[in-house]
Amino acid sequence: MKTPILLIISFFLLLSCSKNEADESNQDSAYIDDDLAGPISRPKTGYGSNGSYEVAKISFPSPLYSGKNVEIFYPKGITSPKPVIFYSHPYGGEESAYNIGLYEFIAKKGYVVVFAPYPTTGVTVDERYDTLWQSFKKAVTDYPTIIDKKKVGFMGHSFGGGASFALAHKGFIDEGWGQNGRFIFAMAQWYSYEITQAELQSFPENTKLITQVYNDDVTNDHRLAIDIFKNINIPNSEKDFILIKKSVLPTFTYTAEHNLPNTQTSYDAYDYYGIYRLLDAMIDYSFNGNLTAKNVALGNGSKEQITMPSYNGQALSPLEVTDNPSPLYPQSKYAFQCGAVNNPRIANCN
User: Fold this and answer.
1) Band of the pLDDT at 24, cuts 50, 70, 90?
2) What integer pLDDT is reported at residue 3 of this predicted model?
3) Hey, CA dihedral for 326, 184, 187, 120, is it positive or negative?
4) N- or C-end of the chain: fewer Cβ atoms within 10 A?
5) What is the largest CA-CA distance in the chain?
């Protein structure tokens, strides 16, 4: 069962406002999957099942965060650059071990993921954004034999989920990344800085979006995600707003709290079926144009999208999908409310 380990440290946010070839001699050894918590295992086939690649990793010093490394996870042995996902971690999640299962999954499927740490304390929000951006940009510049900048996704959780929209706009508009495929995957997002209403209305037409919120989250007000989802210029056919609810089995509870997904405190079927499966399909649709994949990632509530696995005849709670989300709970439920003065988009709260 997951526990909200990032909740306490997240309150501190209120107080702080060149290489050309992959050098595999510097990479870490491949990681080994542990069994998932709970009675349900990972998918064996289809979207969400593990890929066949071994995982390689290469690191370089963060351009702005002294003493920390940016990490690139990629398929071992590749001979050409592969599509990339730039991941922005939650506040306090500076170590890749917190969500290593996600990064491994991406690399095993044949894609690249860049993990960039930013400081938890002692810096402003803008400085955190700049640390993420400069790290991503250096990865693209220094590792062109690993990263295909024509197929790009931005993914993030909590602070990183809110940041993903400004970062994606820089990448897609300012740098022209993603001309052959673009998407954003935002989870349990915090406030979104450095993105204007005009910029939200100027994303390229090939941009796709999955926004996820978790029913038991008491950290980030769902209105933050709803605001961006409704105001971005991506058409309903290319975006979905997804709610995940907990499932209670006789011997195990699959929770839908703020820290879903993570590998560190509990690595379970919700990580795979609720997040990895949809990400896998989103990548295939965005980068390869696979319409079967679209029906899973952006199925607008299709059976293939919302159905979760069963155990002993009891199905896990289906995903709830909409193009017109509305808040289910009062702002008072959350630590970070839409109506707080440090929300730069407070005018968009309903």
Assistant:
1) very low
2) 44
3) negative
4) C
5) 55
Identify the sign of the CA torsion 78, 81, 82, 87.
positive
* 20's tokens: 């050309």
CA distance 293 to 305: 10
Exposed e or buried b per residue across 265-294, where buried means at least 16 C-beta atoms within 10 angstroms of its C-beta: ebbbbbbbbbbbbbbbbbbbbbbeeeeebb
| pTM for the structure as a whole | 0.91
Residue 187 in tokens: 């989870």
Question: Of 21-30, 107-116, 269-278, 280-289, which range is least confident?
Answer: 21-30
Task: Give residue-wise pLDDT tens across range 260-289.
Answer: 999 988 899 999 999 999 999 999 999 999
Residue 165 has pLDDT above 80, yes or no: yes
pLDDT score of 8 more than 50? no
Helix spans in 26-124 (H): 100-108
* Helices 159-169/125-142 angle, 10° precision: 60
In this predicted structure, the answer to whether residue 23 has a pLDDT above a threshold of 80 is no
CA distance 32 to 190: 32
Instruction: Kindly tell me if the per-residue pLDDT of 153 is higher than 50.
Output: yes
The CA-CA-CA angle for residues 101, 99, 308, to 5°, reads 60
A 10 A CB-CB count for 204 gives 16
Work out the pLDDT band at 119, boundaries 50, 70, 90: very high
Q: What is the DSSP code string of 16-38?
A: ----SS--GGGSPPPP-PPPPBS
CA dihedral sign, ordered 198, 199, 205, 207: negative
Tokens 């999640």, residue located: 93
Give 199: exposed, middle or buried? Use CB within 10 Å, 0-12, 13-18, 19+. Answer: middle
First to last CA, the chain: 32
Q: Which residues contact 324 (CB under 8 A, 6 or more apart)?
A: none
For 239, phi then psi, to 5°, come to -150, 150
